User: What shape does this take?
Amino acid sequence: GICSTYLHDLNVGDMVAGRIQKNHHFHLKKTSKEIIFIANGTGMAPFIGMLNESEKVISKIYWGGKTHHSFALYKSLIEEKINIGQLKEMSLAYSREGAKEYVWHLIKKDASFIASHLKNKGLIYVCGSLQMEKDVLRILEEICNRELSKPLSHYRQKGRIYSDCY
Assistant: This one.
């Protein structure tokens, strides 16, 4: 997004001022068993950190970007995590090529899997743009109401869905 473009346009030796703003609620829970990550763009970065700092097995990552080139930065690490069994599955959506899908399309296609995941006390983490979060939460609300007969707020209040979107 804006930050990526800014950083890309910098020259070697340019100085950048920055700060770290921690989200103390957005980390892998010690008791978590089944986990799904949902991200778009650079929203994948916290999940890469979580994968590298933990030995927990991640059930699935849903990720969206503009083109398959957008995923190149993460591809080798994701393949490694799949090969060692730390990540079970990865689903990708590209908004500017092929089927022109967004992350919420992937979630909607996997409604039964998502419902089963929540029913079995699985956790869902969402990170990325505010628009992606809005779309994903809308689809999760539909899934919860239709397949679990409970509102999304039930699962959020139980600490089963976490988000860090910007």
